[in-house]
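It is worth pausing here to work through a concrete case rather than discussing structure prediction in the abstract. The textbook approach is simple: state the sequence, then state the predicted structure, then interpret. We follow exactly that order.
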Amino acid sequence: MKQARLIKSLWVLGAIAVLGLLAFAGCTFVGDNITGVQAGAGPTTCVKQCNDFYAAQYKEEQKLHDGNNDLCNALSQPDKGNCLVAETARHEAAKAALASAKIECQNNCHRQGTGSAG
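Step two, the predicted structure:
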């Protein structure tokens, strides 16, 4: 029962982390600086800001993964294996979401300033 609750908690934490990351990957066309990327910056500066932001996010995800692995390793053997498998799946999904959000952030850098005022 503890193992099922832990796995569910890991998935919930993972889902919250992924949703939060996707929220931070919002559009950079507006003046809002939610992703840490400035809307008026040139493409090179913007791409660097995307890279820096997502490097920090990857680092945080790795810390979360390491902590979750520690929790899994504290369980008894049958539960430990299932927990580690679930955590690996969550971690891989979070890394994939980060990679997609980083690419979208970078793509938005190249779209800035392509519209017309009107």
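Step three, interpretation. Residues 27-32 have pLDDT under 50 and may be disordered. Residues 48-112 form one domain.
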